[in-house]
Every structure is written in C-alpha cells, then in structure tokens.
Write a structure and sequence with these properties.
By secondary structure, the protein is α/β, with parallel strands linked by helices. It is built from 16 helices and 5 strands. The protein has 2 domains: 86 residues, no CATH class; 178 residues, 3-Layer(aba) Sandwich (Phosphatidylinositol Transfer Protein Sec14p). GO terms for molecular function: phosphatidylinositol bisphosphate binding.
C-alpha cells in the first residue's frame, strides 16, 4: 500500500548507496553494481520544489475547468490578463518574442493552463517566453532537435483519455544520454509538450503520461536531464500533468532507482504517479482506468494507430 511504499522510499534514501546496491546487485542482471551506485547517487540530487511552487490547490482538482474555450467569459479573463501584462511590462517582451515563434497566443495558452487564474497566468507568460528562448523551442525544429525527437523517446500521441486530456508517450529505451546531452534532451521534452499544447483542449485540461518502461536499461537513464526537466521545463510550461502511468519498470529501476527518486519529490507529485506491472510490452489492464484502450498505442496492446513518421513531419513543421 501507500504507507509501505513511503516507508520503502525513506529506507532507500537513508541507506548508504554502496551498501544498498551491493546487497541487491546480485538480483540486477541489467547493470553492474558500479553503474547502479553512480546512477543512484546522481538521482539523489533531484528536486521537485520548482514544480510545487507553480502548482496550487486548483491543480489538485482533477475536474475540468467550467470555462469553455472561445467563450465570452474566457475573452473577458484574457482582456484582464493582457492589462496585467501591459502594467508589468511583460507585454512588450511577449510581443517581441511573438515575431519569432509559431505560438501566437501564449497569453491565452497560459490563461487556460493556469485554470483561468489571471495572476498565475500573468506570472507564467514571461517565464514561458524566457524558457522558450533559452531552449530554442517553438520557433521551428533545427537539425539537433530533429535528431533528438526522431529517436522517439517522447512523443505526443494525439489521443485523449476519458476526460479529454492529451496522451504523451515516453519510451526512454530510445534515449541515449551519450548521443543526447542533458540540455538537448530537456529541450526535446519541452518541444513535445509544446506540440501537445497546440491543442486548445489540452491547454485547458492537461495531459496524462504513459511512461513505458518496457525494455529500458540503466544506460538509458539521464539524471542531469531529469533535473533540468523537473527544475526548469515542467515548472515553466503551463501544462497540467494529471497522471503518470509507469508501465513495467524493470526490477533494478522499480525497486532501487525509483524509490530514491520518489523520496525526493513531494507527496503532491507522488499522488499522480501510478505503477503497473503486466505482460512484457503490454499496458496492463489497470492502465485502462486512466487511459482507455482506444487511446493506447497499438505497440502497447491498445487500439490507437500512431503514425510516427507523420508525427515527425508535423514536428518539423512546428
């Protein structure tokens, strides 16, 4: 249960890494003890506080906002947001950036993503503009970003869960940290999330993540990139992650690495994470309670036909 998982996380976090990995390395045929020790030590630096600061009680509610896209109420709130941005001077910065980005409605995107709370949206706009400039996203896909996205570690499926939230599919088995530096991988995650945010309903309702760990190995893990994603990308993007479904984590990751990670993230984040075990390569039936089979890709045993090449072409055009 939840109490047992919490106790295990505290035990792993408090146990000296070399003792823990030596004790359990005989059960982990996926990597050497040295690799596990190094990875576990790097994971101990994870910090989710930046996400906690940008989430409030409104983000805890899993119900959709009552305000509809394109409604008069939304238009009135957008007008109030624009006034705040002009008052703070952030409007001029946004208008300057607007000339170079494919995203022409960032204030509206932030308003929807922050559940129509004008003050939160006003704070979000300049942070988002700064991050998009720093990571060079939202203004086309250059050769480096194209190469990282083409690896297929993260894609936006275009399918929806039962509540209309977009589905992002993570396959870290396709990620090679040696070929994709931390900043570049974090950049690709930002780009994929922005692709999802091109949908007005995803802006309003958020996303769920299918974290498909089938076939993942320790060599695919990239702690420096994870730190950037947790500290910079996710806190800045006005996107609500409603659920993370972790599918079939291998033993050494599920029992050694993940407890260390979870020991350093807040209860708020942990409450949105569900772990599922089942047949190799297939999304267990428990996942269907969050994402219906019709929205799960065929590769994971679902019914959603995902054309990766077509998605890549749309990414190049973004």
């Amino acid at each position: 249960g939840e109490a047992r998982a919490e106790a295990w996380s505290r035990f792993v976090a408090a146990t000296p890494i070399h003792l823990f990995t030596l004790k359990y390395s005989s059960m982990a045929d996926d990597a050497s003890t040295g690799s596990a020790m190094t990875l576990a030590n790097q994971m101990k630096g994870l910090d989710s506080s930046a996400i906690d600061e940008t989430w409030d009680h409104a983000d805890e509610e899993q119900v959709p906002p009552s305000i509809m896209a394109g409604s008069q109420e939304e238009a009135a709130l957008l007008q109030a947001l624009v006034a705040k941005l002009e008052e703070s001077g952030a409007m001029a910065e946004w208008l300057s950036f607007k000339e170079s980005t494919a995203f022409q409605d960032i204030p509206l995107l932030c308003l929807r993503g922050r559940k129509y709370q004008v003050d939160r949206a006003a704070a979000s706009v300049p942070r988002l503009v700064e991050m998009m400039r720093e990571y060079r996203v939202g203004s086309g896909v250059d050769e480096s970003l194209q190469k990282t996205i083409k690896a297929g570690a993260a894609v936006y499926l275009g399918s929806k869960d039962a509540m209309g939230r977009g589905v992002v599919w993570l396959r870290l088995r396709n990620h090679d940290p040696k070929a994709q530096p931390p900043a570049e991988f974090a950049r690709s995650i930002a780009a994929v999330m922005l692709m999802a945010l091109d949908d007005p309903e995803v802006q309003r309702l958020g996303i769920v993540i299918l974290h498909d760990m089938n076939g993942i190995r320790l060599k695919n893990m990239n702690p420096p990139a994870f730190k950037l994603i947790l500290s910079k990308v996710l806190p800045t993007l006005p996107i609500r992650v409603a659920r993370v479904c972790i599918i079939n984590p291998p033993w050494i990751i599920g029992k050694v690495v993940m407890p260390i990670v979870l020991a350093f993230v807040s209860k708020k984040i942990k409450s949105r994470i569900q772990i599922f075990h089942g047949p190799k390569g297939i999304a267990p039936s428990g996942v269907h309670g969050f994402v219906p089979p019709s929205s799960i890709p065929e590769e994971l045993g679902g019914e959603w036909h995902f054309d990766f090449d077509k998605w890549l072409a749309s990414a190049d055009a973004a």
